[in-house]
Design goal:
single chain, 111 residues, alpha+beta, 4-stranded antiparallel sheet, two-stranded antiparallel sheet, 5 helices
């Protein structure tokens, strides 16, 4: 989708969750990777699809500037449309069985 769409309209169970220019959407979201020791409950509120492992954390955020202030040592990459769509559904009881798996992890596993 990142390569073929100009505008993104994301509909989940009949509700429009997002309608935005693709480039503006991609510019406003970031994939964040950092040290889990830097996480606090307050900081976690700025992250979506938070996955914590023994090696650190991975998440996405729609507040990249605030996240850069809170996690200055973290790595920030551009999120893809799939990551953003999953993040928008996170917490919705009727979506994806209320589980969040980043598309990058799916790709890495070869699924």
């Amino acid at each position: 989708m990142d390569k073929c769409a100009d505008n993104i309209i994301f509909i989940d169970h009949g509700k429009i969750l997002l309608e935005e220019d693709k480039d503006a959407l991609l510019d406003s979201w970031r994939l964040v990777k950092g040290d889990r020791a830097s996480l606090t409950p307050e900081k976690e509120t700025f992250l979506r699809c938070l996955r914590i492992t023994d090696f650190g954390f991975t998440a996405v955020t729609d507040q990249p500037e605030k996240a850069r202030q809170l996690f200055p040592e973290a790595l920030f990459d551009r999120a893809c449309v799939d990551d953003i769509m999953i993040a928008l559904c996170e917490g919705r009881p009727d979506s994806f069985e209320n589980q969040c798996v980043l598309s990058q992890e799916i790709t890495e596993r070869g699924l």
